[in-house]
Amino acid sequence: MPFELLIGLRYLKAKRKSTFISIITFISTAGVALGVMALIVVLAVMTGFEDDLKEKILGTNAHIVVTTNGPMDDYQTIMDRLKAIKGVQAVTPFIYNQVMLSSGKNVSGVVLRGIDVVTDQQVTRLSKSIVEGSVEDLENGKFRGPDPIPGLMVGKELAKHLGLFLNDKVNVISPTGNLTPLGMMPRMKQFRITGIFNTGMFEYDSTLAYVSLRQAQQFFDLDDTVTGIQLRVEDVYHTDELAREINNTMGGNLSARDWMQMNKNILFALKTEKVVMFVILTLIVLVAAFGIASTLFMVVMEKTRDIAILKSMGATSSSIMKIFILEGLIIGVIGTIVGVGSGLLIARNLEPIIAFIQKVTGQNFFSKDIYYLDHFPSLVVQSDVVLISVTAVLISFLATIYPAWQASRMLPAEALRYE
Asked: Rounded distance, CA 239 to CA 233, Å?
């Protein structure tokens, strides 16, 4: 073991008369550990939110949506052309419009989507989120119950709000109705609840309803037209390039938008918050670094005689500097290791910890209405842990340089003059 490291380890254990230095050393180590732990937990939560949100968005929506300025005619031909583009795996038509659902005394405004039951399952993961009924029941003749009423599928939260259960009847009202001698009359039709889905995202589960494509065309009087076409692609993180290629290839009044462009505001907000939180919480480590520097200054003052003796015995200035740099690094490394261990332990068990705190305090820290999610996500990314660890050790190292340099400049004769 190099003598610089050996002496640095010995200096960590202060004498009985210098207990204050030991306390400062402990506080500095705890500060580094606290900062690292906070960084790991917060970034794990931010990453978990981002990953969970992306999964919910991609589970309910397509990777790319192709639309026109109005109803899309001859959509079968357009679908064939889109399928021929490299990178496109599957396509499906859809109809998208706003309506009102009425059940008894309860009314709610929703977005009604008309989907092709067969091809939609190749593009979205809607069928995997069904908790009651099935997507196939949306088609005529595949409903539940004795009456020939077309099927409609709603989200779990919407069903709860309207008091709907499987096989219940509900009225769908379109604000764009028929022109009569009495004026514009809203178009209304009765549907039967043939499915209830749960995407896990509150916004979708409370505002979306699905019917078959044919029923949507009849209800909105669209003949054989659709609103647009949804696409599933091979690489979900390069959809912007494919969307540009589709726009250049298809031409006309067709417009392709990818899922990141349609949700850019919330994705940008999450990314920005993650960066800002990293910067803010790094300040905790910086504060701990000042503690490390203070500790080293005090140790240098206490060990003035030892430094002079070491120099008299032939120790170089660089060796003296290494002693105190290693001492500060040991504090930083120990704090980082403790912080990483505790941070990973909390981040991997965050949901039961939050549930326990909420049960004890009686407070709800995680409202579905605000966060649009049904659980508390936490995802530890190895690269984030490495970045946090390296940053903490680097800050600790920088904090040792000046005190160690001051110690290395000490002259033996000056140090021993008053001994």
From this structure: 8
Question: How far is 188 from 174, CA to CA, in rounded Å?
Answer: 6
Residues 219 and 314 in one domain: no
- Write down the H helix ranges in 61-147: 75-83, 117-123
Backbone dihedral angles phi then psi of residue 232, each to the nearest 5 degrees: -110, 135
Which of helix, strand or coil describes residue 111? strand
DSSP 201: B
Looking at the structure of the chain, the number of domains it has is 2
Q: How far is CA 128 from CA 59, 184, 197, 376, in A?
A: 9, 40, 9, 21
Beta bridge partners of 171: 102, 190
In terms of DSSP bridges, do strands 151-155 and 183-197 run parallel, antiparallel, or are they unpaired? parallel
φ/ψ of residue 115, rounded to 5: -125, 150
pTM for this model (two decimals): 0.73
pLDDT digits (tens, 9 = 90+) for 179-223: 556 556 678 889 999 999 988 778 888 899 999 999 999 888 888
Length of the chain: 419
Q: What is the pLDDT of residue 417?
A: 60
* Residue 262 covered by a domain: no
- Could you list the residue range(s) of the whole structural domain that residue 372 is in? 3-56+267-416
